[in-house]
Automatic annotation (TrEMBL):
It comes from Bradyrhizobium retamae. GO terms for biological process: pyridine nucleotide biosynthetic process. The keyword Lipoprotein does not apply. This is 3-hydroxybutyryl-CoA dehydratase. One of its GO terms (molecular function) is iron ion binding. The keyword Iron applies. Its cofactor is Fe(2+). Catalyzes the oxidative ring opening of 3-hydroxyanthranilate to 2-amino-3-carboxymuconate semialdehyde, which spontaneously cyclizes to quinolinate. InterPro entries: 3hydroanth_dOase, RmlC-like_jellyroll, RmlC_Cupin_sf. Keywords: Dioxygenase, Iron, Metal-binding, Oxidoreductase, Pyridine nucleotide biosynthesis.
Length: 169
């Protein structure tokens, strides 16, 4: 990317607020992807990707749900002005209110690299469903597509272990 680009985060957050959009990709290069995300209050899935992630909370607070190597769900609270490092391969679910903004930086996707989106049963914590995508362009919004696929299918939302059906939001 030449010449080097300057990004003013306040302008980006104002633009997202004014347009009601949820994500603005700042850059997408082979070794670096950066975007600002607005409000993830609706998230229920865990995202798994092959890249380390760096999160900076620009405004407000994030509850970052993640799953330990043993499979337990835990939460780290990231307050405004704080940063978090999430190691590659860790299932994570960033949840924050509509008036909150986060800067996320990660490695660009490699050719044929697969992003996974996993939902767990709220009753027995068994794996409900997994969506997989090759994300050649992050602007294609793989999260929204995964959500559509999951919530439009009662079969995907039905737990094979206990029979519980996760309701639509």
């Amino acid at each position: 990317m030449f010449p080097p680009r300057l990004v003013k985060l306040e302008e980006v957050t104002n633009r997202l607020r004014d347009t009601q959009k949820r994500v603005e990709v700042l850059w997408q290069e082979p070794e670096s992807l950066a975007f600002v995300a607005r409000g993830r209050e609706y998230r229920s899935e865990f995202h798994v990707n092959d890249s380390d992630e760096f999160t900076y909370m620009i405004k407000n607070t994030m509850n970052l749900h993640y799953r330990t190597p043993e499979g337990r769900e835990e939460i780290i609270v990231i307050p405004e002005g704080s940063v978090n490092f999430m190691p590659a391969g860790t299932p994570h679910s960033p949840r924050f209110p509509l008036d909150a903004f986060a800067l996320i930086v990660e490695r660009g996707r490699r050719q044929n690299e697969i992003d996974k989106f996993q939902w767990f049963c709220p009753k027995c914590d068994g794996l409900l469903h997994e969506e997989q995508f090759v994300v050649a362009d992050y602007r294609a919004d793989p999260v929204s597509q995964a959500y559509r696929n999951f919530f439009e299918s009662e079969k995907a939302r039905t737990c094979n272990a206990c029979g519980n059906v996760m309701p639509k939001p």
